[in-house]
Design goal:
Layout (H helix, E strand, L loop, with lengths): L6 E6 L5 H15 L3 E5 L3 H9 L23 H4 L6 E5 L2 E5 L12 E4 L13 H7 L1 H22 L3 E5 L10 E5 L15 H13 L3 E4 L21 E3 L34 E6 L6 H14 L5 E4 L9 E4 L2 E4 L4 H9 L1 E6 L3 H10 L4 E2 L6 H12 L4 E2 L7 H9 L18 H29 L7
Parallel strand pairs: 1-2, 1-6, 2-5, 6-7, 7-8, 8-9, 10-11, 10-14, 11-13, 14-15, 15-16
Antiparallel strand pairs: 3-4, 12-13
Helix pairs in contact: 1-2, 1-12
């Protein structure tokens, strides 16, 4: 039976690059079924999505209207002065567009439009109390998302909505899916008695969606207790790890418009870089860790690559002694950089963890101070023997170098289960494909549900 070609609206929350990153395989999966995909995304995540599906030069000047056709004071064009035009080329079709303005550009396959977001402010200290003060603004943003979604449904007529951690994207006329691994958030010690209550609120929000996709494994979860309570959701399904490095992802890159990859030593069994530092997350901690790394590498002879995680920023490339600094790397080049690096150092954000697990790589995890989810994930994954964790306040490059000389090798790490005998690199070869197939199965099932729903059929 030939499935009707449906329109899918995919909207990741704009809290850094992680949520946009893990939506990349989701977008690919829908495109591979022949669906038309509309991606609503703001901030750096928009630049990432553009680059993941190819970049072309200036095509046409975009306008500055919001999704309802009127100027939006919170639009990307109001927050960014840069008016460089960018486009997206995907699956042989070129889509003009500018992620820094509000005018959308259409194609029969893929469309990228700005979607208003909720900014996350970080603090040097007391991150979680600061976030609690923003709860009223967060709840207000959920109401705003519902209003924006209502206009989008009227204009785009999507058959399916896929939201990554945007709880306002529910519409009674459209089948909807929420992607989240945070059904029971990790809270500071003093607030831990409230975890159960907060978890119930989150599950009630998630229960408003037709399905809840959990990007993890049911039998041996990488997210640990964060997925607890999924049993109470009738529409909860595990999709496996969602990574832009999923098998087959290389064929979606546009190498013709990408700069040359940073070296070619990884494939020959030697490493081009001793260290690869992948930075991400909110300020000021992103810059603080970058400064710590730069200071530490200054007195070292080790060759290292630092990826700042700032798409669209300038300069795009710098050289400081033995340290090569890049603003951003698209997935094919980042994957090659990981393969060419002996030791990877990154945050313990869940999307970064999934990327490394799919590639079969271990790493040194440096949780963002005050982000209790990252701190929990770091401890949890270290206890399983999958990764090593170091607090940012204790991070010392010279100590890391000494540990490496003492035998910090990837083969000593356990495979991601309770058994032993294989390195992560050996293990992932048979598992990453299984995760990809699990996502494809869920995509086909939910498209069938959206197509067959009598109450939500489109004229």
């Amino acid at each position: 039976m030939t499935m009707k070609k449906l329109c899918v609206l995919v909207c990741p929350v704009d809290w850094g690059l992680g949520h946009a990153s893990r939506c990349v395989p989701v977008i690919r999966a829908f495109l591979e079924t022949g669906c038309r995909v509309v991606v609503g995304v703001s901030g750096p995540g928009a630049e990432m999505i553009i680059r993941e599906f190819g970049i072309s030069d200036s095509i046409e000047t975009a306008g500055e209207n919001g999704v309802d056709g009127q100027p939006d004071p919170d639009s990307l064009s109001g927050r960014h002065a840069d008016s460089r035009q960018r486009g997206c080329e995907s699956y042989g079709r070129q889509i003009p567009g500018n992620v820094r303005t509000e005018k959308k550009h259409c194609s029969d396959r893929l469309e990228i439009i700005p979607f208003p977001g909720f900014s996350v402010t970080s603090y040097r200290k007391f991150f979680f109390p600061g976030m609690l003060l923003r709860v009223p603004a967060f709840l207000k943003n959920i109401s705003r998302e519902k209003r924006v979604l209502k206009r989008l449904v009227e204009r785009c007529s999507p058959d399916l909505i896929v939201s990554d951690n945007r709880y306002g994207l529910v519409n009674e006329k459209v089948t909807s899916v929420i992607i989240t691994h945070q059904l029971r958030p990790s809270m500071p010690l003093l607030l831990r008695p409230l975890e159960g209550m907060v978890s119930r609120v989150i599950r009630r929000w998630a229960g408003a969606f037709d399905e809840c996709w959990i990007p993890d494994c049911a039998d041996d979860p990488a997210a640990g207790k964060l997925t607890a309570g999924h049993e109470s959701l009738s529409g909860a399904f595990f999709t496996g790890w969602l990574s832009r490095f999923s098998p087959g992802s290389d064929r979606y890159s546009n190498q013709a418009v990408s700069p040359e990859p940073p070296g070619s030593g990884g494939s020959s069994g030697t490493f081009r870089y001793r260290f690869l530092f992948l930075l991400s997350g909110p300020e000021p901690h992103r810059t603080m860790l970058e400064d710590i790394i730069k200071t530490g590498i200054r007195d070292s002879s080790e060759r290292a690559l630092l990826v700042r995680g700032l798409p669209g920023s300038f300069p795009e490339r710098e050289i400081a002694g033995n340290l090569e600094i890049l603003a951003f790397l698209d997935s094919p080049r980042l994957r090659k950089a990981i393969e060419e690096s002996e030791i990877v150092v990154c945050r313990s954000g869940y999307s970064s963890v999934m990327d490394l697990l799919v590639l079969g790589r271990t790493a040194v995890l440096v949780p963002t101070p005050g982000q209790t989810e990252q701190e929990y994930l770091g401890k949890w994954l270290a206890s399983k023997g999958w990764f090593r964790v170091v607090r940012q306040s204790d991070f010392n490059l010279q100590k890391l170098i000494e540990q490496q000389k003492g035998g910090f090798t990837e083969g000593s790490e356990k495979k991601p289960d309770r058994g032993s005998g294989y390195s992560m690199a050996e293990w992932h070869k048979t598992t990453a494909i299984a995760h990809k197939l699990l996502l494809e199965k869920r995509v086909k099932n939910v498209l069938r549900k959206a197509s067959d729903s009598p109450d939500r059929s489109k004229s």
